[in-house]
Amino acid sequence: MAPSRWPVLTFTLQLLFIFADAESETIKASEGCTDFQSASLLRGSNLKVQFLLFPSSNPRCGQLLLVSEAIQNSSFNTSLGTKIIIHGFRALGTKPSWINGLIEALLQANQANIIAVDWVQGATAAYPTAVENVMKLGLEISTFVRRLLATGVPETSIHLIGVSLGAHVAGLVGHFYDGMLGRITGLDPAGPKFTRASQEERLDPGDALFVEAIHTDADNFGIRIPVGHIDYYVNGGKDQPGCPRFISSGYRYLICDHMRAVHFYISALEGPCPMMAFPCSSYQNFLAGGCLDCFNPFLLSCPTIGLLDNGGVDMKKLPMEVKVYLATAASPPYCVYHSLVEFSLQEITTLDINIEITFLSSNSSFRTSITIPKQQTLGKGLLMHSVPLCQIERVTLLSRPSKTWSRKKNGNPIVGQFCTAQLPVDKGEMFCLSQTLSLTGNTLLSHRLTVTCA
């Protein structure tokens, strides 16, 4: 596990002035367009809020919405759903670099009114000051939502998307509307100052008809506890693959895990493959192949990151605060498929057996290892791959004898059967190689896989 980054934040912020802000960009507003504000790095500023509408015809041109007349005279379409994006703390007082990508991904995935809440002034410099502005910002957004409702927009069509501190702002807005807004998505809701807060002060399942959260930095800037109907703990909710693990990486070391929730969400909206997750007691149990379906509590409908109703769960009344788990790749498009891999022995052994399993597709390979404990016959685990199981062409198996395995016993073959299935799965759907396999020493065994596409 990476060392905690929160204690070094104050010191590191002093160094940030020499780094280019990897999470921000400056784009000059063209004529007729309004851009995000900027704020002083040293003294911060009082809360000043802008509501910017981004039409599908020009998703990089923000239309400033000041009063109800401005809404009526804008390209706002009351027949479409409305998605309101709320950013979080801005250490350097600049526009979030991810905002344009998220807007474009939302517009690509669904026709909707996309509104970004710009509160860079008020979210900058000192984190405690930004926290103090959360309540005031929640009240301003609530007033804005009331103006939207006055145009005939139904409450259920409002979807708030809050990033970090913005997730708790979204929770407050939903609380002000008695949980009757349609949906809240929290992208790694902030942890500091909120982990021990009451439900009235932070995001919780009662804040909307459907509340979901994506956790990616639960050991530092993100919140550890579940806060929605469904809480996605991606890669266990911390230490994301591909993020730097050393403070010498500067700003990226601090914010990479935290901001990865935004990039996962954008990837899910762009849809190269489903980001499906599975309820489980822990991430370790999930990786060990202990949680293979969504029967409990979702009645076989598995939650999926994106814009599906109720996250793809086919239940009218959702259970609250269900932890679900999934793994990802280290780089875009991030999404992977999860397959159960099993090797069952014909005979019990007196020592642990380790087997390395590799899936090969036309241009990629994917590897994992499983252990068959002594006095048992079955070893299993999950193997993640970027193409569907039916596109995997071959599987290779290699036994790795334990250090205590004697030279004599090392010559004895490991005989058994290999099976696999893509999640979600039940035992009746397992694909098994017809041949009984015999693994000897460090000899690689390769077989063709012919899993039929669904």
TrEMBL record:
Gene Ontology molecular function: metal ion binding; phospholipase A1 activity
Keywords: Calcium, Disulfide bond, Glycoprotein, Hydrolase, Lipid degradation, Lipid metabolism, Metal-binding, Secreted, Signal
Record: residues binding Ca(2+): R202, D204, D207
Domain Lipase: 32-334
Reaction it catalyzes: 1,2-di-(9Z)-octadecenoyl-sn-glycero-3-phospho-L-serine + H2O = 2-(9Z-octadecenoyl)-sn-glycero-3-phospho-L-serine + (9Z)-octadecenoate + H(+); 1-hexadecanoyl-2-(5Z,8Z,11Z,14Z-eicosatetraenoyl)-sn-glycero-3-phospho-L-serine + H2O = 2-(5Z,8Z,11Z,14Z)-eicosatetraenoyl-sn-glycero-3-phospho-L-serine + hexadecanoate + H(+); 1-(9Z-octadecenoyl)-sn-glycero-3-phospho-L-serine + H2O = sn-glycero-3-phospho-L-serine + (9Z)-octadecenoate + H(+)
Protein localization: Secreted
Pfam families in alphabetical order: Lipase (PF00151)
GO CC annotation terms, alphabetical: acrosomal membrane; extracellular space
Active site: S164 (nucleophile), D188 (charge relay system), H258 (charge relay system)
Predominant subcellular localization, coarse grouping: secreted
Top-level taxonomic group: Eukaryota
Residues annotated as signal peptide: 1-24
Gene Ontology biological-process entries: lipid catabolic process
Family according to the record: Belongs to the AB hydrolase superfamily. Lipase family.
Protein name: Phospholipase A1 member A
Gene: PLA1A
